[in-house]
Amino acid sequence: MAAQELTGAEIVIKALVDQGVDTIFGYPGGAVLPIYDALFQQNKIRHILVRHEQGAVHAAEGYARSTGKPGVVLVTSGPGATNAVTGLTDALMDSIPIVCLTGQVATHLIGSDAFQEADTVGITRHCTKHNWLVKSAPELARVMHEAFYVATHGRPGPVVIDIPKDVQFQKAEYTVSPHITHRTYRPKVKGDIEKIKEAVDLIANAKKPMFYTGGGVINSGTVASQLLREFVRLTGYPITSTLMGLGAYPASDKQWLGMLGMHGTYEANNAMHDCDVLINIGARFDDRVTGRLDAFSPGSKKIHVDIDASSINKNVHVDVGIIGDCAHVLEDMLRIWKSKARRPDKAALADWWKQIDLWRERKSLAYKTNDEVIKPQQAIQRLFEMTRGRETYITTEVGQHQMWAAQHFHFDEPNRWMTSGGLGTMGYGMPAAIGAQIAHPDALVVDIAGEASILMNMQELSTAVQFMLPIKIFILNNEYMGMVRQWQQLLHEGRYSHSYSDSLPDFVKLAEAYGATGIRAEKPSELDAALKKMIETPGPVMFDCRVDQLENCYPMIPSGAAHNEMILGDDTDGASVSEEGKMLV
Amino acid sequence: MIKDEKIERHTISVLVDNEAGVLARVIGLFSGRGYNIESLTVAEVDQGEHTSRITVVTTGTPMVIEQIKAQLDRLVPVHKVMDLTVEANAVEREMALVKVAGTGERRVEALRLSDAFRARVIDTTHSSFVFEVTGTPEKIDAFIGLMRPLGLVDVSRTGVVAIARGPEAM
Lengths: 585, 170
Description:
The structure holds two protein chains of two kinds.
Chain A: E1 5-7, H1 8-18, E2 23-26, H2 33-40, E3 46-49, H3 53-67, E4 71-75, H4 79-93, E5 98-104, H5 120-124, E6 130-133, H6 137-152, E7 158-164, H7 165-169, E8 171-173, H8 193-204, E9 209-213, H9 215-220, H10 222-235, E10 239-241, E11 256-259, H11 266-274, E12 277-281, H12 287-290, E13 301-306, E14 320-323, H13 326-339, H14 346-360, H15 376-387, E15 392-396, H16 400-408, E16 417-418, H17 429-439, E17 444-450, H18 451-454, H19 461-466, E18 472-477, H20 482-491, H21 507-514, E19 517-521, H22 524-536, E20 541-546, H23 579-583
Parallel strand pairs in A: 2-3, 2-4, 4-5, 5-7, 6-7, 9-10, 9-12, 10-11, 12-13, 13-14, 15-16, 15-17, 17-18, 18-20, 19-20
Antiparallel strand pairs in A: 1-8
Helix pairs in contact in A: 1-2, 1-6, 3-4, 3-17, 8-13, 10-13, 11-14, 15-16, 15-22
Chain B: E1 8-17, H1 22-32, E2 39-46, E3 51-60, H2 62-73, E4 78-83, E5 90-101, H3 105-116, E6 120-125, E7 128-135, H4 137-147, E8 152-157, E9 161-164
């Protein structure tokens, strides 16, 4: 018997259900009305109505990163699709699996500059891992399943399926299985065993080893984090991580040196600079991490594990490049290490730790508090201390508050930390918190924000209120685009060009206007009680935390400098940035 | 990175699914990441399988060439990437159509030189020839150079196509 014929819109819904999707984030419009009609007539998929399509993608990112599952977005043609572009680019840079369905004008209107027509596949070709324009309903089911496969296999990323309105009405059979084998795209997950052996030899013979891990460990799944922990503990070696990799290794462990890079700790960056074997697992030698390339970890043999072959030798030349999934490669590394009964060089390692402990004593994240004004670091530290033991998910916006959060909120589990690393998208945090809260309804989800960033997607507070999502928006309000101001202070002789957040709203009243709870704290003495109130209030809360306006984020590796040329907070002479460095971002 | 690395010229073959937008993906990759394209040719090579073969001649340091290959390889519709300059002893050919206008001795000289290059005359009037010439890009450069003083008016070149020597498929 022939399979039952479904409309294109029904095929979309059925394919989503077959993929195990239970939640999508979207915004309706003319070119997706048939899909919204099909959504209306079913109850397997929950639709979260956002207030702007960028918010939909960031919410899907928050959902994806806090669960390890792909996030799904549904938006209309034209402005719906173009509004999603920032979110898609963000997901591409941070390797987040997103399936974004966009409506398109009917096939016979494509190319005619029709109402709300945009060349969506053309526009999104550069900000997706792959995209499709589906020109007939019989292709639709196959493309849907292929899209999920591509988004979630290999290095994850966003994909777009552009579906013309007539295709959503057209009928076709739904015969495809959700488990497809792709014709061309079959990424390799197992690493080359000879190279892994070579890496294990290097690791075992190291005198001053250093693990440097990244978002790839998180993306690989919780098994990768467990294997990483086992391997790092077995070796006794120090470990640091990129912004994206926080939580893969517990920050409470004694082998943890804190984050590295531009705002990384003194001990992590110095250890990177001086180590003799660098073990990069799932990180990509990003410029925020390496600083000046020709002075990056100059004396080390470098091992690089990455699922994306194009990441290897892109920025930094490595001695052993292993293409594979972190969990698979770590499993092989552990097996070889154990079967060959490898032991680290105890004496050399003890000396290395002695050196690291000297760097640690520098206490590079220290800050001075007073009774008059709340320090932003203090606010985050208190938030961390007051939420310990809870299931807490943290998202951030972009800027100083983001770096302070990475420095002072410590993660012991993967998938608890969501931040826009690669693209640096202000406005990411609140929608991402919405996505994380949808996935974890009983958890505490906090968006650590700045007063400038939060205004970029403020409209999503309405989404949180509508769906009764008890997210907490913790605004470190210094009335400046703090990171811009900091760079203007260090690089442009204190000419604060347009970095003052003028005409700010009253965030407490604004929260109330949306139907949320507003809280304000202005003095250190008020902080704990206000935080307690924020945590205990059942619905969405916006907390206007007034902090020291001119606090700078340290330590800092100025642009164009090396890891051992950090500026620390208590340096009196401040920064010196080379002319070349000023050209860098 | 090491800045004074030598710039090399590589011919890269890319076997792709012949689907909408595939060429735009390849070209977009080169322009988006700032790689050079010296020439690019593309046509379907297997109608049943719907595969096309793209031959791209590019220049860059060895590290950039490696990046180009890795970046091409991770495009979803790409079946295979082969660096014909490194992996195979390859043959390269290009075809050009060359229009030369003139009369008298210059016209005779153009015809005589075309013979030496095994170029064919595929169109002629009393005052012009269109030559079809095939060979390595260098040979075509040389032919065009010789035609210039003899009344060269127009050139159309295909860009390089290349294939590995020997019995194996790509």
